[in-house]
Amino acid sequence: MSGKSLLVLIAVALVAPAMTPATPAPIVRNTVEAQIYPGLSVAVGSVAKGVITAQASGYADIATKTPMTPDTPLHVASVSKSITATALMQLVQAGKVSLDAPVSVYLPNFVNGSKISVRQILDHTSGIPGHGHKDPIIHGDGAITTDEVFRKLNATPLFAAPGTTFEYANENYYLAAMIVQKVAGEPFATYLQNHIFGPAHMTHSYSSDGRKDSNVALGYVHRMKSDPFLRCPSPHWSNVLGGGGVITTPSDIVRFDIALYNGTLLDKRYLNEMTSPAVRISGNVSYGLGWFVQPGVLLWHGGDFTTASAINAIFPDGTFVVAIANGADLAPDFDRFYFARQLQNAYGSVPVALGTPHPPSMLDTFGPFTRCDELFDMLFKD
Questions:
Q1: Would the N or C end of the chain have less CB density within 10 A of its end CB?
Q2: Is the pTM of the predicted complex or chain greater than 0.90?
Q3: DSSP 269-288
Q4: Which residue in 84, 131, 74, 73 sits closest to 291, CA to CA?
Q5: Which of 220, 225, 217 is nearest to 36 (CA)?
Q6: What percent of the chain has pLDDT over 90?
């Protein structure tokens, strides 16, 4: 095959429309009908086949009964971190950023930046307190300026020596986005559009910057599936820059995966560094640079807001599975990893073992609530 023919095939794989069945598969439809999520959108693909299927069920807006479609934009929450890591790795590949340089080289206004390397913010070993310390710096429950973020960062001691302890912290990826913005000399959202979304043909994707978009699915939450869905606001965009600010569709995330693995976004050397275990979390699960890594089993990143749930899962046979819901269910009703394996079995080339579902529960963390502010108090206040 000629080089020109190969380029044509790659382009077709990236931009060919998804094959969407008129009726979503039972596992998609049943999840919504079971009242776990108000709406659910999924896509499956591979480098060889492009987007294989895109399906959606339920509502993007319950009150108006606006249906969820495969093209409905959704908050993907922390799945955004893989995209932010890719953006920063592009600058590493270009020789403009060094993974082992202190963060202060690029962000001199960050006091602890001289102690923390760029690598350590990407693999969550910076020592900045995050989820394990109830997110004392960036909450997500209101607007925050860049100056305020750095003021709080500079006033908050590190909880551990950099490089010694894994703690998942959105602040790490806020800093990563700030480095991209500073080094590239353009707003982070603009960089993603020019260097990620555009080249990957992600035509329904953008990094939220406060713009109003009436097409985005509304977000909902309930404690148990027997409870009604409560419409609540998503985190303010200024809090999730880098760590959770991408609005997209499952098909577009599949296109991101394709562009990552076919060399459009990164050379193989830098992709391998990003997707290799950097720090062990527990068992066979490690964190790389913007990805959770289970060697030979799964490469993935999840995403959770109080009003959204998502997963981007890459299986050993090269099958990309993406699922995004416009809601959060806090009871042990749904195992998104099992759900992803079901989709891989249905559309992948080499089915993986399904195993048994192990749905997580957050009922011990969150008591009953009937208003958004009650939920936010449990989430953000001691």
A1: C
A2: yes
A3: HHHHHHTS--EEEETTEEE-
A4: 84
A5: 225
A6: 85
